[in-house]
Design brief:
Elements: E1 4-7, H1 17-32, E2 36-41, H2 51-63, E3 73-74, H3 79-91, E4 95-98, H4 102-115, E5 140-143, E6 150-155, E7 159-164, E8 172-174, H5 182-192, E9 197-201, H6 205-217, E10 224-228, E11 231-232, H7 248-254, H8 258-267, H9 280-286, E12 297-298, H10 301-313, H11 317-330, H12 340-350, H13 357-368, H14 376-379, H15 384-397, H16 405-418, H17 423-435, H18 443-449, H19 452-460
Parallel strand pairs: 1-2, 2-3, 9-10, 11-12
Antiparallel strand pairs: 4-5, 5-8, 6-7
Helix pairs in contact: 1-9, 3-5, 5-6, 8-10, 11-12, 11-13, 12-13, 15-16, 15-17, 16-17
Length: 463
């Protein structure tokens, strides 16, 4: 069997994190079976579809490593084919013109609401033998859904789903202006693209039953369907684009690595024994739809940060530096090439306990910038005694030809004894002088990450 999967987002907003996971599952299934993974941009909503969102979707998938086969399929370019299938459905007796006005539909919906029942179009024009067609009114085209019996889908995640056909209305397949609706376009495109597996969110289950009827009416092969549970926010509600951690851009901004986010999304609703960390090759080899759970998954930012910390710690310093450099560029700052060697050398401690690229970036600013600014609350900590310790350190430090941890420890321990203080009493003033803050890396790491001249220059500025 040839495995062909697709991801079909609408360019009406930034790519949602739930969409990224859906794309990931499709991509993994296709790669596992040496199949194809296609990207289809469903842009038939002319008013809301934007080129900027299409670009963001493509770039987001590329960032996380989900590259699609061939060029993107643009749904709006296939409208002629959609309309041809609509005409075929009319000829086969599976579609009809409906002349109900918007006011009529509104009244039907209000009536159902009062009765506390789901709205289902009353099929007024389904067999309109005695109805007079109104003048100057353009009809919509509706699909003749099955009225009696049940429909069954053997879902690859949810198991067998059985529903009564009575709850599926005669849905619209062509609007008044002749444009195709999602139900028709998605079905025709999936058939045209020879899609074998449709993996999408479980909020599409009712759509699947509608689309299955179009497949059957056209006597096409029905693909395999898999509906994965939605992602909920940390509060337990459905994750929306308004949430701060809803789009892939939200994670890029704080410095989450693509492999870390991919690993997290893989484990969000899927499991393989008790394994937590997966390489890309392991993800492809081990992924299967049987491991996908049936219940919604809750987004856990602390877990994302923990996985990201793992990837940062285990990443080669030169590769990590490239990520850091790009992160800085995304924040409209560039890393001076003259600082590259110092940063790469210092990453072994800068990445210690860093959960994001932003943590590293903030801790590395004292190396990146030639001039540092000391915050007002930290200047207050530099009292007379602190300045005395700083001056004593400077006097002794100038005598050291090649600073290293051993001779620095000897110097600082001597200052601790001489001034009857503790390590913080010496380390904090020095850190403020060298970094501009009482917070930052260990004092030995700070001193050794700077040149001797730079240490002298910064400390000399403290009066």
């Amino acid at each position: 069997m040839s495995f062909i999967c697709r991801f079909a987002p609408s360019p009406t907003g930034p790519l949602h994190i739930g969409g990224v996971r859906t794309a990931l599952f499709n991509w993994l299934l296709a790669k596992k079976h040496n199949g194809k993974f296609y990207l289809r941009i469903e842009d038939t909503d002319k008013e809301r579809s934007k080129e900027e969102f299409k670009k963001q979707i493509v770039e987001s998938l590329s960032w996380i490593g989900l590259n699609h086969d061939d060029k993107e399929f643009i749904q709006s370019k296939n409208i002629i084919k959609h309309k041809e299938v609509a005409e075929a459905l009319i000829k086969k007796g599976f579609a009809y013109e409906c002349y109900c006005s918007e006011e009529e539909i509104k009244k039907q919906k209000e009536k159902c609401k009062k009765q506390g029942i789901p709205y289902v179009y009353n099929r007024k024009w389904r067999d309109a033998k005695d109805l007079q067609i109104p003048k100057n009114v353009k009809p919509v085209l509706r699909f003749k859904s099955k009225i009696s019996g049940n429909s069954i889908i053997k879902d690859l995640v949810q198991g067998e789903i059985n529903i009564s056909n009575s709850i599926i209305e005669d849905f619209v397949i062509l609007r008044q202006d002749g444009s195709p609706t999602y139900q028709l376009s998605a079905t025709v495109d999936d058939h045209s693209m020879k899609v074998s597996h449709v993996i999408r969110g479980d909020d599409h289950k009712i759509n699947t039953f509608k689309q299955k009827q179009i497949y059957e009416a056209m006597e096409w092969d029905v693909p395999n369907f898999a509906h994965i549970p939605l992602i909920h926010s940390e509060k337990g509600s459905k994750l929306s684009k308004r949430d701060k951690s809803a789009t892939i851009d939200d994670y890029i901004k704080i410095g989450i690595l693509p492999d870390a986010l991919r690993n997290y999304l893989l484990r969000l609703g899927w499991a393989h024994k008790d394994k937590e960390i997966f390489t890309l090759d392991e993800s492809i080899k081990l992924f299967d739809l049987k491991g996908v759970g049936k219940s919604p998954s809750k987004l856990d930012m602390s877990r994302i940060l923990s996985i990201n910390e793992h990837y940062i710690k285990n990443l080669n310093e030169k590769i990590l530096f490239e990520f850091l450099k790009k992160y800085a560029q995304n924040h409209k700052e560039s890393i001076n090439l003259s600082k590259e060697t110092s940063i790469i050398k210092s990453l072994n401690f800068l990445k210690n306990k860093a959960k994001t690229l932003d943590d590293i970036y903030q801790n590395a600013k004292y190396i990146l910038k030639d001039e540092i600014k000391i915050a007002a609350e930290d200047i207050k900590l530099l009292d007379t005694n602190s300045k005395k310790i700083i001056n004593e350190f400077l006097h002794e430090f100038k005598k050291i030809n090649a600073p290293n941890k051993e001779n620095l420890e000897k110097l600082i321990n001597g200052l601790i004894v001489k001034n009857k203080t503790n390590f913080k009493g010496v380390g904090q003033p020095l850190r403020i002088a060298l970094v501009g803050s009482r917070f930052g890396p260990g004092i030995y790491n700070i001193i050794l990450s700077l040149t001797k001249d730079e240490v002298v220059k910064r400390i000399s500025k403290i009066n």
